[in-house]
Amino acid sequence: MLLWMLAVALVGPVAAQTQNHQVREALRVGGDGIAKTVTLPEYIERRAGDPEKLTATYRLRADLGSRPGPTAVYLPGVFAAARIAVNGHVIADRIEEFHLARLGGAGRLVLATVPREFLHAGVNEVELKLASRQGIGLSAVWVGDENTLRAMHEHKLLWQVNGPAAGAGVVLVLSLCVLVIWARRPTHTLYGYFGIGGTIWALHTLWRLMPEPFLEPPHLGIWRNLGYGFFAVPLVIFCLRLSEWQLPRFEKAMWWSLLLSPPVLYVAQYAGVLGSTASYVRLLWIGAVAVGVYAVGLYALRRRDAQGVLLLATGFVALAFGVRDWLADQNPTDNNPIFLTSFAGVLFFPLVAWILIDGFVQAARDLERLNAELEQRVADKSAQLRHALENMSAAKEAAEGANRAKSAFLAAASHDLRQPTHALGLYMAALRAEKDAVPRAELADRMSEAIAALNTMFNALLDVSRMDAGALQVDVRPFAIAPLMHRLARELSRQAQDRGLRLSVRVSTNSQRLNALSDPVLVERILRNLLGNAVKYTQAGGVLLACRWRHGEGDGSWQVEIWDTGPGIPAADRERVFEEFFQLGNSERDRTGGMGLGLSIVRRMARLLGHRLRLDSIEGKGSRFVLELPATAEPARAALEIGASGSLAGLRVGIVDDDPEVREAARALLAGWKCKVVCAADVDELLARTDADPAVHLQALIVDYELRDGRNGIEAIEAVRRACGKAVPALVVSGAAAPDRLLELQASGHPWMIKPVPASRLRSWLVQAMSSHPPGPGGVASRQDRDASEGNHLERATP
To answer: Are 599 and 485 in contact (CB under 8 A)?
Structure first.
């Protein structure tokens, strides 16, 4: 394409000069009616006092010979709206477009075809009427063969408008690509200077080609000259940085020249010397470009490769074109010259952009290679791996800290509710012990149901806190799976019947010879939760509880399945249903729908036991939960059971609690069990009351963990044992269930319960305490006393 353009550039003007008549002298009639012979090209400056519409009429003669053929009038440079007439006949008229600030680009080139009937042999008269709101400019006028002049017009249009526009588009795209790379790597300022300079260069070129610029003279001419500096300065700095030259003062001087140029040019405009001043300012920037090209030349010589040679060649071509354009701008015989700087950019910018992008890609490849080497070293060296593991451990601790904070919040929120609920439970038990009338027992039943509902919610929150704290202990042992399945089915059969559902149980015959190996209490809680949910959320159809034996390692495994014909779970929510507080279809947070903790606790317990739990569901048809348990041929082993039977008459019990309602409720309950009770707000008061009555020798102690003045129940137990000289069986109760509190209770070695404490569990512990042997010497509890103090069994006695 470039070779074709060069051929047109060389052949076009020769053909034009040999076949056409160029007119340089004309009679100009101004707006004041004064006629004057002038030489073209000519430019008429607008002066103060001139009318808004500045006009001028040019009359000229052209000898077309004896037989004129197809003829045209060609104006290669007209800076105004024009009306063209030949022998009195108008052939082109744009005079009404005089309001345009100053025609640019293709608007400066006018080619008008002359109809043959308007011509005659010999000399023909051509009249040009020009109008503008600003100055008027007219080049030499060509009259002659239409085909030759059209070729001249297309030649100049190509080199002056279309070619620069296409080149500017290419440069703009490449510059924006480099700017995107710079945005990804802001530290690479080299890319920034090139991208900004190229973008301004392209925009300046396109602005120069606009037929109707958005500025009017003199601002138009001033800022078009400044545009050269705006793209020259960043590009010169780019060349210096690319060549690794350190010239901070030179760079600062260029920035100052760019900053001071606007006021200098405006002062020159008012002084009437704008043309020469703008020319010298532009020459100054061309000199700066020469410094950049020289730096690039030395850089290219150091590289001594194809890229260096191309870079050097395009740099010198760009400089040569810039000098040539400056000289062409000073030529008085051509008021609309062709500028070659645009075409130099088409060579320079793609080459440099390719070098920069190639360098970026190569750097990315090197980075990938270095990353691969680093990963290999990390894999090979344990020290580096240890550092990575430490970072992971820190992140894990942060996540666990956030989880503990959530659990602590939930435990704290429930603390104030546990105290009155605990007292209410004790009052209710005492009320049921009275055998006066049935209505009181019925009222007590209702109170018991309300407390059971509250207790269920509190236990769910407590389970989360205990698992977060690691205070939930696991007792893995062989147990029979079939009795557990049938017991759960019996418990929920009434609820299923009330809802019109079929509840079925299917257990493999292998259950007669193989047991399950897990914690039976936790497994029962998991299955009760899943089975209860299936019954609760199934509207019609039935629920199936099945247990199948599967071959595998050792004795195989049990696959416990809960099927339902409920609404099913959408695929998007099958993981979320195991999250805390998430409830499907309960956005209003209806309390009857639970708290959204059941399935979360189920998954946590399954993970704690190391059992696989999975969910399959079809929306609208039902769901299936599957829990896999190891199977074993070992005989089932019973857990430690604490019975609730036995008389408590005469048992001397000390109660220490700073809440008077709790003390009074406990006293009433234990008095109903025929116990001798001593209540106190703190340990000092308890010891004072026992000392006042020598007949009182405490046989059991129930202590609240949080007491007044910063004291706790552990300290109170130790004080009582020191005073009594023996290890009095002691139970710690607490209304706080924060993870750190649970760990403290677990580490104390004392049996403990979380409020509200069911009366049946409290009685079980008292029966065990009453039947224990006296403590051994030195205040150390006997073996049976220690067995009765296993807090984990107390907490896990009721699923």
So the answer is: no
**573: nearest Cα among 551, 599, 547, 592:** 599
Task: Report the alpha-carbon distance of residue 455 to residue 7 in Å, rounded.
Answer: 97
The pair of structure tokens assigned to 608 is: 């704690």
Q: How far apart are CA 146 and CA 492, in angstroms?
A: 104
CB-based contact 724:770 (threshold 8 Å): no
List the one residue out of 50, 225, 211 whose CA is nearest residue 136: 50
pLDDT of 779 > 50? The answer is no
In whole angstroms, what is the distance from residue 46 CA to residue 36 CA? 18
Which residue(s) pair with 84 in the sheet?
92, 128
Q: Tell me how long the chain is.
A: 799
pLDDT in tens, 301-344: 777 766 667 777 777 777 787 788 778 777 777 777 877 777 77
CB 605 within 8 A of CB 522: yes
- As a whole number of angstroms, the distance between CA 654 and CA 697 comes to 9
Q: What's the pLDDT band for 446 if we cut at 50, 70, 90?
A: low
Please compute, for residue 332, the number of CA atoms within 13 A of its CA located in the half-sphere on the CB side: 5
Token readout for 590 is 């209806």
**CB-count exposure of residue 50 (10 Å: 0-12, 13-18, 19+):** middle
The per-residue pLDDT for 115 is: 92
pTM of the model: 0.41
Structure tokens belonging to residue 96 = 């009404």
Q: Determine phi and psi for 132, rounding to 5 degrees.
A: -160, 155
Task: List pLDDT tens digits, range 675-684.
Answer: 888 998 888 8
> Residue 412's pLDDT is what?
45
The distance of Cα 253 from the centroid of its chain, to the nearest Å, equals: 43
CB atoms < 10 A from the CB of 179, how many? 17
